[in-house]
Amino acid sequence: MCSLRRGLPGRSPAPRATIHCARAVSSRRGSADSFSRARERKGVVRLVEVDRLSKSFGDRLAVTDVSFTLEAGTTLAIVGESGSGKTTIARMLAGLETPTAGRIAVCGDDRSRPARRASERRDRARQLQIVFQDPYSSLDPRQSLSTCLDEVLRLHHPAMDRAARAARVAELASLTGLDGRQQSALPRELSGGQRQRVAIARALAAEPAVMLLDESVSALDVSVQAQILNLLADIRAATGVGYILISHDLAVVRQLSDRSLVLRHGRVVEHGPTSEVLDQPTHPYTRLLRDSVPRPGRRPARPANS
Ligand SMILES: Nc1ncnc2c1ncn2[C@@H]1O[C@H](COP(=O)(O)OP(=O)(O)OP(=O)(O)O)[C@@H](O)[C@H]1O
């Protein structure tokens, strides 16, 4: 996997995503809170700050008072059973839902209200990209990887000429382990794992500071899943991108994330380093989630009275 990093010739290991974000943070330094400034002085780039976020749909509270941060080069996992509010948080981060209360900042820019102009939407997309569980539905069936990446590069990097774009397409394909045939293939001609690599390459083409991985490896079989997780870890090390990993699979969470946040009925019940959350959970719900993972010889835990 290390060879993938050689696919970024001449690029500084100092992550471009981080540089992009650091600029955004310093450009609005006046409104950054004192905690952010203290972290910046220590050289930690805070990519995402979510503060007391809530969302209700009518009288249904989907998310209540959720706070977390994400730093460059790290992964935060959001776990919880179906209906616990994971997707709603993801949709608010991506700007697809407006919070009922609370604040979201990505790269220091406030996202608590919808983007008004196309340029603002483009800037936001450049800061945060999403990779969904099913790339098939999010890929244009008529576009090969090369065409798809070229389009993203033209949108986000208008100063790049055709040759620079072609070089960057080759670089991204190499980074995500897609060969020449796969670069010119249509989505239907690729396997699920290859399509997921295409979706990752497309997200990376925008050079985002943050990637939101929404059950991105859930549909893949275990060996392909392991390859994609290794790939994501390599990309994180090479670029400093931060990941928000939404997953119900605790093995995936353990492999890729540094910190985990456990949601129940839209509220955070536990939040801390992943190893501590999974190995020494303090909340009964986290214990239940962990003990529900099927393991040889283990009986499923009975739900507590809840
Ligand atoms: N547009 C909506 N209108 C009304 N209720 C909604 C809407 N979107 C989500 N909800 C409700 O909000 C709660 C949280 O849903 P959400 O999709 O965020 O959960 P989740 O943890 O992502 O679940 P899953 O793992 O099944 O995707 C659920 O009770 C859901 O029914």
TrEMBL record:
Keywords on record: ATP-binding, Nucleotide-binding, Transport
Basic residues compositional bias, start-end: 296-306
Region entry Disordered, spans: 273-306
Record carries keyword Transport: yes
PROSITE patterns assigned: ABC_TRANSPORTER_1, ABC_TRANSPORTER_2
Domain annotation ABC transporter: ranges: 48-290
GO biological process: peptide transport; transmembrane transport
Annotated GO MF terms: ATP binding; ATP hydrolysis activity
Family label: Belongs to the ABC transporter superfamily.
Protein name, UniProt field: ABC transporter ATP-binding protein
Species in which this protein is naturally found: Kribbella turkmenica
